[in-house]
Every structure is written in C-alpha cells, then in structure tokens.
From TrEMBL:
The keyword Disulfide bond applies. This is Glycoside hydrolase family 38 central domain-containing protein. It holds the Pfam family Glyco_hydro_38C. SUPFAM superfamilies: Families 57/38 glycoside transferase middle domain (SSF88688), Galactose mutarotase-like (SSF74650), Glycoside hydrolase/deacetylase (SSF88713). Keywords: Disulfide bond, Glycosidase, Hydrolase, Metal-binding, Zinc. Its cofactor is Zn(2+). GO terms for cellular component: Golgi membrane. One of its GO terms (biological process) is mannose metabolic process. It comes from Setaria digitata. Residues 406-479 form the Glycoside hydrolase family 38 central domain.
Length: 869
C-alpha cells in the first residue's frame, strides 16, 4: 500500500496544534508518531475525566469609558467590494451568468480595471463564485488575476467557500467551509487569507472569531450588530476591539475587529454620518441607492464642493474608532457588473482623493484605495492606545428599533424542513469521508460505486416498482444491510428500519439478534392508552399522564432524581417575515382539544407514546431499553405540518421545578455553552437565542438539557425550556425577501433528546481538586463552559446516528441479513471528539479532533470507553 501523509488538527479551548504525519500506512490511528508528543500525551491521558472551567456568566458586551484620543492626521482606506450572495433572489447560476447581476462580468471588470489603474484596489470574499469564474477563464485572465493577488492589489479576504451564517450552522460545517475555500486558494493562487470580511450575516457569534483564529486569520471586519450596542460602541470610541472567548484569559484567540459604522456595507451607509451626503458618492452605473444628486468632477468648483463633503464624512468616522486610520466600505450587492462602473468610480474618486491629499494643510488627511490587509497594517502601525477587549456575542440581531420588525429571530427556525435536511446531509457527508479514510479508498473510486448503485435504483422500473415480483426481489437480494458506527466510541444504539412484513428474523453471523417489530404509526391499528402510562428501563421510570400535559414524572432507579415535569405546546400570532419575528400574545396552548387518543407501543427494545394534538402537530416519546448510558435520556420526536396555519410560530415547552432565576444556556454552534438571561423588559422575540444543538437550565440540585438534531431558536423563563418548532408566515418584514417567495412550510420530522442530571452538592471541593489536576485548562472557575460526558454522548448519537447501507457484494457467500461493519476506526479517549477524517489530496488525509473539558458539577454515571490509556 502506498504511504500517505496526514494532517491532524486538534482543537481545544486555548490549544490548537497541527501535526504533519509522514509514512502513514497503518490500519489504526494509535501508532501514529506526533510532532508534539507532549500535547498528545496530555490529550490521551485524560481518561474519563471531567474538568471544571469557567462558564460564561455574562454575554453582555462590556464597554468601559475610553478617553478620546483623536489625532489630527487621518489615513483613509477606501475598500471597493461587491457583495455577491451565492443564491438569494436568484440561483447561484443565475447570479453568475445573467446580465443584470453577472458575477462573471464583475470579476472580469475588476481584473480589467485593476490592470489599467495601478492605484486601484479591490477585495473579494466568496471562493465559490471565484471557482466558477476560474473554471471557464482562459489562461491569460487567470494569469492576470493571479498577478493582481501576488501584487496585493486584489485581496481575497476571508476566503471561505461562502460567507456563512453564524447563528445556525454546526461548527464542523463552518470548519469545512473554511478548509474548502482555503484549500482551493492554496491550490490555484498559492495564497492564504490573513483577514476576514463578513458583513452580511444576521448577527455575529463567538464561533467565527475562534475558528478564524485557528486558521491564522486574526483581523476581521463585521457589520450587523445590534443598533443600540453599535451606538454605545460609537459613543465610547470602540468600534475597534479585540474579541475574546470568555474562557481565553490569556487572549490567545482574540482577533482584532473593525465594525462598520452604520447598518450596511454600502457606499451610502459606509462613508460617514450623513447618508444623504454619502449616497452622492455612489456613482457607479449599477448603483441601487436613491439620491438627489451624484458627485461630479467636471470642473474645479465641483471638485472642491464634493471633495470637501467627502473629507468631512470621512473625518466624522474617526471618533468612532479612536484611531488615526479608518476604513470606508464602497460597495453594494452585485455592484460593478457594468464595464463602466469601476472606470467611473476610479475617475471620480481619484480626482477627489487628489484634491483632499493636495490640500493637506486644510484636511490633514491622506485618502487612497486600499485592501483590508493594507487597512489593518495601517491601524497597527499608527496605534498608540491599548485596544479594548470585548467578550460575548451579538445575538439576537436587532436593527433600528423603530422598524416594524426589528428583531431578527424568525430565521432561527424558518423553513425548518431545510434545516433538518441540511443536518442530514452534513451527517452523510461526514460518514462518506470516514468510510473513504477507513477503507483507504480515495473518494473518486469510493463514491463511484455509490453512484452506480444509485443509478441502478432509479431505473424506471426499479424506483417505480413496475417490474415483476422476482425482478424486484432480485434488486433487493443484491443488497446486504450494513450498520456503521461513525462515532469515536462504542455504543448501544436503537436501529429502526421500515419493512413490508412482520415476519422477519435478524441474524448476525450464527446468532439471532433480539428484534422488535412495531406497526408504522397509524391511529387505526394502534392500541389506545386511556390511563396513565408507565415507560421504564433499567435507569428510570416515566409516569406519563395522557390526560394532562403538566403532570408527568420521572424517577431514577438510583434515587438521585424524582422530578415532576410538563411537556406542552403552544402557538403565537407572528407578524414577522422570513428574517424577523413579531410575536403578538397571548400564546395559545395546543392542548388535546379534539380529545384525540394517545397510543402506546411497548416491547423488549423500546417503548413509546404517540399522540396527535392537532392537524399541525404530533409527538412521540421513546424510552430505550438498553444498558448503555445513552438510555438515560428519553427521545422526543415532533411531527409538524404547519402549512395551513399561516401567521403562527409554534413552540415546545418543557416545564420543570428547576429554580433557574431566568438564567439559561444555549450552545455556541455546538462548541460550548454560553449563558443567557430572559429580560422581561424586552419583547419575547428579543429573548430568543440561537440553539444549534442545546438548551440547558439548572439550579443547585438539578439540571435539564434539551438536545436538538436541527438548528432552531430557544429561550427560558422560570423553570421552563422553550424551543421554537416551526412557523408559517403571512407577512413581509421588508428585509428583502418578498412574502410570496418565502411562505411555504413543508412537513418536518424534528428530533430531540431530554436529559435530567443530578447536581453534586460538594461542588467547591471537587473544583479545587480538578483545578490542581488539570492546570492545562482555564481555571478561573466556579462553573463550566461545557456539558457532561453523558450529554456529549447523546449529542453525537443524535447528530451522527449509526448508518444503514444497502451494499452490493457479488463475491460474498454470507447470506446473513446484517454484515460486519467495514469501518475500522479506533476507540478514542472519552474526552476526544472526532470531528472528521477525510482526504484532502490523493496521499493526504486531514483528521480533526477536539479536546472536550467536561463539566464536573453533575453526577457522572459513565465508565471509561477506551483502553488506549
């Protein structure tokens, strides 16, 4: 077998290491020889340990008063850019090709104008469009483009495949977004971005500054933060700051951030305080701004008039940054698609720049076209005062409070069906990557077989079922069922498969496995539950009251938990649109008003309750009969179909006796937990935060966690965990996407897990012990920034369930229904998460792992899963 190189990325809170592996030819990962053996030993040596580290107590952006330190001299960098959405009102291909907003033409225009005008600069962000252009560009234009990037006049800022959302994606997807974009740039242009330009996400979170820092991007430009917070930052001269993770006391992962001064990244919004003046400099033919006049430079009088206006607006920005250097964004959506756009901008701006620069005694200013890198280099060179350090995130994004729909929380669960689909695709892609690595087959050949099987199955007499019975049987008999565990630990997991007959035997080798055949959900065929139902396994018993949503009870067999809880659903009128939510209370409970019966399934593997509440909602509660600790949770599935209920948002509520004092925790894109607080002074929708995977509340005795298989929004009042389920809109919020283009909602299958955990009373003594044993992790702690190992195991099972395959193996003589899994990944230590493993070149494999500091404040029931240490 040919030798391969491996790149390994270990991500930990405050630690990141890249290992280049040579001569990798083993079937296992354990014999690898690492460049930094000490770090690996530390990672491997934490067998079934938990660590008490600082939980984020306050995510409010803290701003201290700063003395204004305005220099007379001002350097101004005007950043030309075009914001190109990879799909919005039109498809990706339509945006690339059509004349009205041709990205192809934009890039051609940029190359042509920069070659003609040496002082002109431009920045580009989205690599997806660049790849599309590069694939059809001739060698001459490719060389032009590369020369411009080599000269630094055309900067790729960010360099992600797309400018991703920051509220809803799981962090692994964002890592992939970064890697795919950067790998392409390395291959085609031999460049690595050093700055980030992310100006259109609807709020900014803590995931991006951390992940970008790991990618050696330590200088960021952002835009959409709450208007009120931005105004406070402007008044305190702090639109420049270093953005830190709360746990990063040593400031190792704190990029320098520039916030654009106003609402948008456009010419009209970017040049200063007065939009009626700034819009005058939006001179391109394809300009979208409405303005009574445009800057003219046809005579000395015009040059003096508009030159002074431009200089005054640029000077007005200086106080916001307390700096002698400012950035001015000069772009818009799909701007510069006309061949004359950049020529006009160059002529007008260059003329005004010369006027301002030549009259230095009057303006004390040097103005020029620049890139983001040049701007940050200028800031660093001229910086005299210490930069403020801010922590927290900017969710939810709230624009002008005077708008009819200012709170951008509707998109957290808009088009829920797509969020479910996206998470499934993520899991499937990760699995395909793991299989290609485990089988040592480069993906081209590995996926070729999958494509052939797919082609076979969609034959017009196969997928339609129009062949004779024996032909259909032959289609089916050519496949075996394979089960693949894609996690880094062994697990006992519930596997479900729809079948056409109840007469089934499941075998593994010579053994007959325990199987349970249950009917597909059909109210006519199920047994009606008229009394209280008991669901139990070896860990706990649930007493479920089918007549009341508020009087259920869970009792753990070891005596640690005996808690009452309620699970109820409600809806509220929502006047928001695709982006925003405008709740109009009162909330309407979706109790079983139609007196629909509940149905029960009980068997040796699992037991469940199925209940339809309304034509829009049904739910299923499942308890697994297993010795595996993941059975300490119970599964909750929601079947939503809200398409006929336009103008409503639907919620699931878990009511407990936990005294959380309106404090709750949501996850930062699956990386760790961040503290939130329900503020009664704000509207309901302004108290909703992104829930990518997790919502948790706790007090001194009990913790309750809801895990989600799909992104959504969440909040919590006293003792109640509230999760957004689905919505159907019937209003236009005026944010750019018309109502008729965004109003559909398809049926969705939503998956959750609910976990109760008992707290440890002697927390202080445990913290002291852990701090002394684990001094390589942050220790300024009274709480945690992570969850327990039990929650992590359940989360991975929810995100990456065991996969079922139909495989073709003509040479096999084994007729058993279930074959041996062919993925051969090693078992990892309990506190190491395998993020992904995949080929990035023919002989190069990338493995991403994460060191997880588990919480110690809850009772742990887990036993070590690995013998590696």
């Amino acid at each position: 077998m040919s030798k391969r190189h491996m790149v390994m990325l270990i991500i930990a809170f405050g630690t990141a290491a890249i290992f280049l592996m040579a001569g990798f030819a083993s079937d296992y990962l354990s014999p690898m020889k690492f460049k930094d053996r000490e770090l690996w030993n530390k990672s491997m040596g934490m067998k079934n340990n938990c660590f008490t580290v600082a939980r984020i107590k306050n995510v409010t952006i803290k701003v201290g008063k700063r003395k204004e330190n305005i220099t007379k001299h001002l350097n101004v960098y005007v950043i030309l850019h075009s914001h190109v959405d990879a799909g919005w009102l039109y498809t990706f291909e339509e945006y690339y090709s059509t004349a009205e907003h041709s990205v192809r033409q934009i890039i051609n225009n940029v190359v042509n104008s920069l070659r003609k005008h040496p002082k002109l600069r431009f920045i580009w962000s989205e690599v997806s469009f660049l790849e599309r252009w590069w694939s059809e560009a001739n060698a001459t234009y490719r060389n032009y483009f590369k020369n411009l990037t080599d000269e630094g006049r055309l900067e790729i800022s960010g360099g992600l495949w797309v400018m991703n959302d920051e509220a809803t994606p799981y962090f692994w997807e964002t890592i992939e977004n970064i890697i795919v974009g950067h790998q392409y740039l390395q291959k085609k242009l031999n460049i690595t971005p050093t700055t980030s330009w992310s100006v259109d996400p609807f709020g900014h979170g803590l995931m991006m500054p951390y992940l970008l820092s790991l990618a050696d991007i330590n200088r960021m430009v952002i835009c959409r933060i709450n208007t009120d917070i931005k105004n406070v930052l402007k008044q305190s001269h702090q639109l420049h700051f270093r953005w830190r993770q709360k746990w990063d006391s040593q400031l190792r992962w704190t990029p320098f951030v520039n916030v654009l001064p106003n609402d948008y990244y456009t010419v009209s919004s970017g040049c200063g305080n007065d939009e009626t003046i700034c819009c005058q400099f939006d001179v391109a033919k394809t300009s979208r701004s409405f303005c009574t006049e445009r800057a003219q430079v046809n005579n000395a009088q015009q040059i003096a008039l508009y030159g002074e206006r431009m200089a005054n607006q640029y000077r007005s920005l200086q106080t916001f940054y307390n700096s002698g250097t400012v950035l001015v964004a000069a772009g818009d959506d799909f701007l510069y698609s006309d061949p004359d756009d950049l020529e006009i901008v160059h002529r007008v701006y260059s003329t005004l720049f010369r006027y301002i620069n030549r009259n230095y005694n009057r303006f004390k200013m040097n103005v020029k076209f620049g890139t983001v890198k040049e701007y940050f280099d200028g800031v660093k060179e001229g910086r005299k005062s210490k930069t403020s350090v801010l922590d927290g995130d900017f969710f939810p994004y709230i624009d002008n409070p005077l708008n009819k729909a200012p709170v951008w929380t509707g998109f957290y669960n808009h088009r829920t069906y797509f969020k479910c689909f996206e998470r499934i695709i993520q899991s499937e892609l990760r699995l395909a990557d793991l299989l290609s690595v485990a089988t040592r087959i480069y993906p081209k050949s590995d996926l070729e077989l999958a494509r052939r099987n797919l082609a076979l199955s969609i034959h017009h007499d196969a997928i339609t079922g129009t062949s004779k019975r024996y032909v259909m049987d032959d289609y089916m008999l050519s496949y075996k069922i394979q089960i693949v565990n894609q996690k880094g630990f062994s697990v006992v997991e519930l596997i479900k498969l729809n079948i056409s007959t109840p007469f089934v035997t499941v075998t593994y080798g010579d053994k007959t496995l325990t199987a349970q055949v249950v009917p597909l959900i059909d109210e006519i065929e199920l047994f009606e539950a008229k009394d209280n139902i008991v669901l139990k396994n070896q860990f706990f018993t649930i007493l479920w009251n089918v007549k009341s949503d508020e009087s259920h009870r869970i009792i753990y067999n070891d005596g640690t938990i005996d808690a009452k809880f309620g699970l109820y659903f409600n809806q509220v009128v929502d006047y928001g649109g695709a982006y925003t939510m405008v709740a109009k209370p009162p909330f309407q409970n979706i109790s079983n008003q139609f007196r629909l019966p509940a149905f029960v399934i009980q068997g040796p593997i699992y037991s469940s309750i199925w209940q339809r509440l309304s034509p829009q909602l049904a739910y299923r509660i499942t308890v697994i009969n297993s010795t595996d600790n993941s059975a300490r949770s119970f599964q909750t599935e929601i079947f939503s179909n809200v398409g006929l209920m336009a103008g409503y948002t639907f919620f699931m509520n878990l009511n407990t006796n936990i005294k959380n004092n309106a404090n709750f925790y949501t996850d930062v894109n699956g990386m760790y937990l961040i503290k939130r607080r329900y503020d009664r002074r704000k509207k309901f929708e302004a108290n909703i935060y992104p829930m990518v995977t997790e919502l948790m509340i706790e007090d001194d005795e009990l913790r309750c966690t809801i895990l989600s298989a799909q992104s959504t929004g969440a909040t919590s009042k006293l003792g109640v965990l509230t999760v957004m389920l689905d919505r159907e809109m019937d209003n236009d919020d005026g944010k750019g996407l018309p109502y008729q283009e965004a109003s559909e909602s398809y049926p969705s299958h939503l998956k959750y897990r609910i976990i109760f955990e008992s707290k440890i009373s002697s927390l202080n003594s445990r913290q002291k012990d852990n701090a002394s044993r684990n001094n390589r992790l942050p220790r300024n702690t009274i709480n945690t920034i992570y969850h327990s190992q039990l929650v992590q195991q359940n989360l991975e099972e929810l995100l990456y369930p065991a996969a079922l395959f139909l495989s073709s193996n003509a040479s096999s003589t084994n007729n058993n229904d279930i074959t041996l899994p062919f993925i051969n990944l090693p078992r990892l230590p309990d506190n190491i998460q395998l993020i992904t493993a995949r080929y990035i070149a023919l002989k190069t494999i990338l493995i991403s792992m994460r060191l997880i500091p588990y919480d110690c404040s809850v009772i742990s029931h887990l036993i070590s899963n690995t013998e590696m240490v």
